[in-house]
Amino acid sequence: MAQNTRTVPAGTPTNVTQKHNKGGIGESTLRPDGTLKVTGEFAYSSDMWHEDMLWGQTLRSTVAHAEIVSIDISEALAMPGVYSVLTYDDLPAEMKNYGLEIQDTPVLAHGRVRHHGEPVALVAADHPETARRAAAKIKIDYRELPLVTDEASALAPDAPLIHEGRDDHHIGHVPHPNIVHRQPIIRGNVEEARKRADVIVEGEYTFGMQDQAFLGPESGLAVPSEDGGVELYVATQWLHSDLQQIAPVLGLPPEKVRMTLSGVGGAFGGREDISMQIHACLLALATNKPVKIVYNRFESFFGHVHRHPAKLYYEHGATKDGKLTHMKCKIVLDGGAYASASPAVVGNASSLSVGPYVLEDVDIEAIALYTNNPPCGAMRGFGAVQACFAYEAQMDKLAAKLGMDPVEFRQLNAMEMGTVMPTGQVVDAPAPVAELLRRVKARPLPPERQWETAGENADVRALPGGLSNTTHGEGVVRGVGYAVGIKNVGFSEGFDDYSTARVRLEVINGEPVAMVHTAMAEVGQGGITVHTQIARTELGVTQVTIHPADTQVGSAGSTSASRQTYMTGGAVKNTCEAVREALLEIGRRKNGSYHPAWATAELLLEGGKVVTDGGEVLADIADILEGEAIDLELEFRHAATEPFDLVTGQGNGHVQYTFAAHRAVVEVDTELGLVKVVELATAQDVGKALNMLSVVGQIQGGTTQGLGVAIMEEIIVDPKTAKVRNPSFTDYLIPTILDTPTIPVDVLELADPKAPYGLRGMGEAPTLSSTPAVIAAIRQATGLEINKTPIRPEALTGTL
């Protein structure tokens, strides 16, 4: 069983409202959706049904880069049961592209396709198998074009341009049209600092393409409305961003596209972009019938973006006493055929490329490329994951070259509150990097070679290879590795990041009830649980109703960037506080003459009553409200950020930083190259744990995703054809319960005074350092220099 500890140092600043309402913040309350999910009764988007609905199917390109010479849909249209077949020429509006920041992604391919699996045509039929067979009858004549698959082919002087005639706002700042975005960061003088270095280490690192691998496939149901609009029920991460992209290509005003969140089976960034949303709406409007689209697993691999694969080139220097002197790096991210979130990923990768360390002299460059590979965009960790793998490998190299303990070397250079980032931004909240490292190192190590001491109770699953029974311990060696990472929280670089919450307080059946309405996408992170806890804490009620998320309330932003508890939780808190003040004002008007405390005391809402800070009850909330209801909708914004300078990279670009450290213990079968991760201990500062059970679950989940990319997860793209070779869970492997080790969790709560309740966004940080910790442990066990993820058996046995 995983363990967790909780530490709140004496004197820690906090702005937590100290109320004593049952089920409020700080408690591990049950999730409203938890029982339904574990019993299989929860309705996911793929479960939706409309009695007269049609089924949609997407036809995708079979080649990665080609001119579309012709499309023949006649056989598909002639099939019984087929209601509609659409191509680019059938799109109803002048706007035919969409995109999160750069509108470069066509709804349906026109003229040419730019990656394997690009949507070319749509079919609506009365049965999903009919739709699939009809799509297969569409004949497309392709003339294949030269491929762009890597940095060399993308930036060659005669390279084919993935997007000719670019006019986006990044084109004036990049040296080549096949570069989506470039962000340099220059601080200090690297050349002078290099002269002070007693040791210099260099490294070239390769990070593979990871899939979000959520279990619930892309799906949704579009229903045409009587007013000519459409209602869309969909699994997504950001309802209002979807709306802003969907309405223009449908030729509809936003108010005629009404969106409601349906059950989401995981996301991790993969639902931040449009997948089937526009296609379902187009077919529904074309047929005037409800249309449901559900991807199978094969199509899901083509239906969403992935984590950027990367090449990272690093140089670090240090003095003989272990102080870092300088860092120089270049990070090359493969963004694939369309921009998606690549510009923001570049900003993160560059600004966080030094890690959680003090460095005054840096020369950093990060770029994202356009290629004919699959599009890449948001995934948990968002640019910081790739950088962490590289800089942590560099820390181990430096420590080894200096003959220092790798943890002590990191602690010697660890940032703290007041450290100046390479961007010039001051870290203005606790940064317990050294303490996190101390905690994971101090934890007792698991017993070695347990199978030898267990006797007849020995479990083969404890060995590398597990149930395949490939070894009884021959050639198995242990390794221990450490890593620590830094991740930003919230949207950055001047983005107007806000969330909206509507809260209604009324009396139902004699009891005060709060209703919380936001557009937050609950993707499994537990946001609706936290919203319930906040409402109970701030309004002193027991009964809280969560309204379904939709676009009839203001935007809640994306469920990404570790931002939702901070941002939409902050919006719920602020709105509840405004509702509370409105309630107290009604109470003062009605009852102020009966008790002086109404005018002089600090009043709280607890247990359905208005009480003084001394605990004296003044009135029941139900008696104050009587037949009235208080209904308010407010926005919440974090402190403003600013764009990074396009030449120097200077600027206060981030809202908040979050930190996590890991210690990995592995056992490696050096003869077969098999790895068993025995334990993956972690320590993380979360500011304030609003729900400790959810916090620990998030940390363990993020840690497991980092483990996956360390030793098994990678989308394989054929370098000769740019085609995906493993679009299935048969060939794309993710950790199962048999691969997941014990994950002890040590939680620190060092409050950020700027954040609601002092909390710190925490969902992404554990994904960063778990990967390099596992790789470091494998390095120690084998003595091999490993500079690529994932690490495969043939790399460990020298049989590549």
From TrEMBL:
SMART domains: Ald_Xan_dh_C
Pfam families named among the record's database cross-references: Ald_Xan_dh_C, MoCoBD_1, MoCoBD_2
Stretches with biased composition (Polar residues): 1-18
This enzyme's EC code(s): 1.17.1.4
Taxonomy, superkingdom: Bacteria
GO MF annotation, one: xanthine dehydrogenase activity
Keyword Secreted part of the UniProt annotation: no
Protein name: Xanthine dehydrogenase subunit D
Origin organism lineage: Bacteria, Bacillati, Actinomycetota, Actinomycetes, Kitasatosporales
Gene this chain is encoded by: pucD
